[in-house]
Amino acid sequence: MNKKTHFGFQEVDEADKSKFVGDVFTSVAKNYDVMNDAMSFGMHRLWKKILVELASVGEKDVILDVASGTGDISKLISKEYPNTKVFMSDINYEMLDEGRNRAIDESFDDNCYFCQLSGETLPFKDNTFDLITVGFGLRNFTNKEYGLKEMRRCLKKNGKLLILEFSKPMNPIFSKLYDWYSFNILPRLGSMLANDSDSYKYLAESIRMHPDQERLKQMMESAGFNECRFHNLLNGVVAIHIGYHD
Ligand SMILES: C[S@@+](CC[C@H](N)C(=O)[O-])C[C@H]1O[C@@H](n2cnc3c(N)ncnc32)[C@H](O)[C@@H]1O
After folding, report:
1. Is residue 120 assigned to a domain?
2. CA 100 → CA 61, 87, 89, 109, 136, distances in Å?
């Protein structure tokens, strides 16, 4: 029997998930930034700034931005710390291409390198990076445990992983409102602004299937990270998880 996983609320063969996820991001790539601003009322920009603050980037750090997409996190780091080396990486060519074009257009490409790769099988030696970031990417992995172990392997001793991801709201009333927004408004916004309601239905479903704050913290600990902790943002709609390699 083929191993199963989730693609949103659907159960699919593990072997098929990355193709389905790939189709979603190929479809949204051109409208990704506009949709992000519309869906989050611009708040994703603040969440990413907080991630970079919490990362305490060193002036000459070597950094891997996994699932970098159109490059918001890479841009913040690259502009603020021009002597770092930032590896922008994404499994999806169209998303990486949007990020690369943007890096050139917005002049943050000097210290950036562009790699098409899966965060689940990193083609880097052990102990390569001072910092690894993943913004809204882990949710889409087929096997999050492999991904976390790979990221730990590629971090230097004392290196850190920061994961920004949708999570679980703490307040039950707020949670109900958020559910209503996610399943009624998001797909409509997707349809109006990007002519693509299915991808935004997947977004809402994939968020619900993603491990909550405590579970993701446990997964990081099981993958070998130390001093794991998380910070809730917007009542836990989003959380930033942090863990260290020793
Ligand atoms: C929601 S976007 C996030 C982009 C960007 N980090 C941001 O915060 O705006 C998710 C990205 O994850 C990428 N992705 C999905 N599965 C991946 C995997 N296994 N390895 C690397 N990237 C992946 C997608 O191609 C997509 O660009």
Report:
1. yes
2. 20, 11, 10, 8, 18
Question: Does 118 sit in the ligand 1 pocket, CB within 6 Å?
Answer: yes
User: How remote is the CA of residue 64 from the centroid of ligand 1, in Å?
Assistant: 13
Q: Within a domain: residue 180? A: no
Residue 193 domain flag: no
Q: What is the pLDDT of residues 58-79, one digit of tens each?
A: 999 999 999 999 999 999 999 9
The binding site for S-adenosyl-L-methionine comprises 70, 90
32: domain CATH number is 3.40.50.150
Give Cβ neighbours of residue 58 (< 8 Å, ≥ 6 apart). 81, 84, 130, 131
- Is residue 184 assigned to a domain? no
pTM: 0.97
**Candidate from 36, 90, 102 with most ligand 1 atoms within 8 A of CB, to mutate:** 90
Per residue in 128-161, pLDDT (tens digit) is: 999 999 999 999 999 999 999 999 999 999 999 9
